[in-house]
Design brief:
With about 220 residues, this protein is of the alpha/beta class. It folds into 2 domains: about 120 residues, Rossmann fold; about 90 residues, Winged helix-like DNA-binding domain superfamily/Winged helix DNA-binding domain (Arc Repressor Mutant, subunit A), CATH 1.10.10. It contains 8 helices and 12 strands. α4 links the parallel β4 and β5. The longest helix has 14 residues.
């Protein structure tokens, strides 16, 4: 899952980024409204965390313009303004939820999970054939067998399961599971796909993870 943080307070942005990365999210950070709007419009995100008070362009302006541009990612507003007027204005423009600073990271994480479940990202438990993944518990199972996953293996499998039968290019996978600083020249995507295959497919008669030569990977039934 890929999250965009648009926040000019570096300590706050670093705090959120670190916490989300520990939860296996790929995270991009922008420090002003102009850059944040650009990132939101050119990339595919699963959620956007947007501060209201930003340099160059306010968070409410960014919100209004990205919604007009067709950005469908749910938006969680961050605000130091504890006023009803600001919250109502943001929700009316298109925000999905808000959080007033200071906040506990656990609350932010819980709100993000609710927004992503509520949106176009499927049911809480992801299933394909006899493979299941529960984002709430981070538990993966193939049939009745528990599958232990590392942080990045989990993120990769979640992305595949949210896009069944869709061929995902290495670039798409890298952008969604890692972040904008990812080195596209490395073979890390192939390495982690191989790790998943060993855990998901090796001891089962039916393979689910398939290579599309010269393009990328797809999760499908043979």
């Amino acid at each position: 899952m890929r999250i965009l943080i648009i926040e000019d307070e570096k300590k706050v942005a670093a705090f959120i980024k670190r916490g989300l990365e520990q939860e296996s999210y790929a995270v991009d950070v922008c420090e002003d409204g102009v850059e944040g709007q650009h990132f939101a419009e050119i990339n595919e995100y699963d959620a956007i965390i947007l501060d209201i008070m930003l340099p160059k362009k306010s968070g409410l302006e960014v919100l209004k313009e990205i919604k007009a541009a067709g950005v469908k990612a749910p938006v969680l507003l961050l605000t130091a303004r504890d006023t009803v007027e600001d919250r109502v204005k943001g929700l009316n423009i298109g925000a999905d939820d808000y959080l007033t600073k200071p906040f506990a990271f656990e609350e932010l994480l819980a709100r993000l999970r609710v927004l992503m479940r509520r949106g176009a990202h499927g049911t809480p438990v992801l299933k394909f054939a006899d493979l299941s993944l529960d984002p709430a518990t981070r538990r993966a199972k193939r049939g009745e067998v528990d599958v232990e996953l590392t942080v990045k293996e989990y993120a990769l499998l979640e992305y595949l399961l949210r896009n069944p039968n869709r061929v995902l290019t290495r670039t798409l996978i890298a952008e969604h599971v890692w972040d904008q600083t990812f080195d596209s020249e490395t073979n890390v995507v192939d390495v982690y796909i191989n790790h998943l295959r060993i855990k998901i497919d090796k001891d089962f008669p039916k393979r689910l993870i398939h290579t599309v030569r010269g393009v990328g990977y797809v999760i499908k039934e043979e």
